Amino acid sequence: MTTVLTLDLGTNGARAGVFDVEKKRIVAKGEAAYPTRHLPPNRAEQDPEDWWRALGVVVPQVLAEAGNPEIAAITTATFSSTVVVCDRQGVPVGPAILWMDARASAEAEASHGVKHPVLAYAGGSNAVEWLVPKAMWLARHQPEVWNRTEVICEALDFVNFRLTGEWAGSLMNATCKWNYDSRSRAFCHDLYEAFGVPELAEKLPQRIVDIGGVIAPLDPAVAAQWGLRGEPIVVQGGIDAHMGTFGADCVEPGTMLFIGGTSNVHLTQVPDDGMPVEGVWGPYPHALTPGLRMIEGGQVSAGSILKWLSQDIFGVEDGALSDLLQAAEAIEPEMTGLLALDFWMGNRTPYRDARLRGAFLGLSLSHGRAHIYRAAITAVALGAANVVFDLERQGVAVDRIVMAGGIMRNPVWLQATIDAIGKPVGIAEDDNLSLYGNAVAAAVGLGLWPDLTTAASALRAPVRHAEPDPARHAQYRRLLAQYREAVDTLTPILHALSDGPSKEPAA
């Protein structure tokens, strides 16, 4: 029996799973939480030591639940763009800056004016979430922390260092978030110099390891601390959602992993043929698998809109949500008399416009909570369909979709998304696709399969089949035309509202 340990650090906590390679399933899993500190106006921080403490709680629990088997390999996935600053021994010199932290907006905006071939991998500029703008912010606003920083890295790199004592960056994270040149396998010193942080290249982990590559053996002290049997190797992982593509077997061009939750993520790959794809993050060469380019589309706000509307505005608690869902489902999408835009926190794909804002159009005194909630669901579903259709318009094939995430807990939203896209989908029966994806990488690191694509096909998580409703899809296609027209018409107004009151003196 070959058993691997799969770890996943998310925004709210650390998950761990024990995966039986022969049985092709997770035999034990658990989770331990850690806190986030939110600071005005737009900062979010965590203590990296809390991550390690959480792993020290959950890993022994899942090992015990699985019967304390010998572990052959360990692979970790983490939230991306959660940035750690520490010394060479892995001791933090400041708090970790969370992915959602928006303090570096000016630094991200400054990247728009820089011309460099590698920025084409990122759609021409950096996003505020990513490591490079955050490094620029630290250098400019907290030079005392920046000067003490010997290593700046992702949460993934920090955990892998604690596991092995070796600094190693993931090719995925480096390509997607560090402006690393994945084609020449080199840091872009000239680009970092243009950003005003020429020393950044030396502060990043120098060894870049492909997903499925072996980093080093597990530190025996960690094995003893966790009560772990065996002499496992530590295998490189990557970004949590992206590792889920292996768990869903959505690696080949034409397949897409759709993760619906607080925000929505659309992950797919295209041939490395130079075809431009606009309105997305990427295409990133070789970030997921060699010879292909990875695309990341997304909706910044999705389930967060529905939660805001039901809980904060309507005052509906989770236990009473079923009544609202039942009432909303009874209303046909076109019969609400409403059109909404899902841009509460801007748009990532396909408009790539952080200044767009949400809207409800057509409100009257006859509208009730169910009409408004149904219109919000429709807006989020139309936003998802708009991503898929825009990719197809640009020549990106989307033939097979697997859905996962918090969307599974809202059946009306789930079916609306399927109907709006209008394609059959596979629905993941286990919401731990990152844990499955880590197991795929671990199996490749152990030499059990020759590559990630083959291993993903063999070890993929089970899915159930779901079909769209043709009549509902026809409604959504008509509504999508109105949705797009509304975006074109309202963009100047939404920009003005986002920018705030005019600074011009009154006449």
TrEMBL record:
GO molecular function: kinase activity
Domain annotation Carbohydrate kinase FGGY C-terminal: ranges: 258-445
Pfam families attached to this UniProt entry: FGGY_C, FGGY_N
Protein keywords: Arabinose catabolism, ATP-binding, Carbohydrate metabolism, Kinase, Nucleotide-binding, Transferase
Top-rank lineage group of the source organism: Bacteria
InterPro entries tied to this protein: ATPase_NBD, Carb_kinase_FGGY, FGGY_C, FGGY_N, Ribulokinase
Domain Carbohydrate kinase FGGY N-terminal: 4-247
Signal sequence interval, chain numbering: none
Name used for this protein in its record: FGGY-family carbohydrate kinase
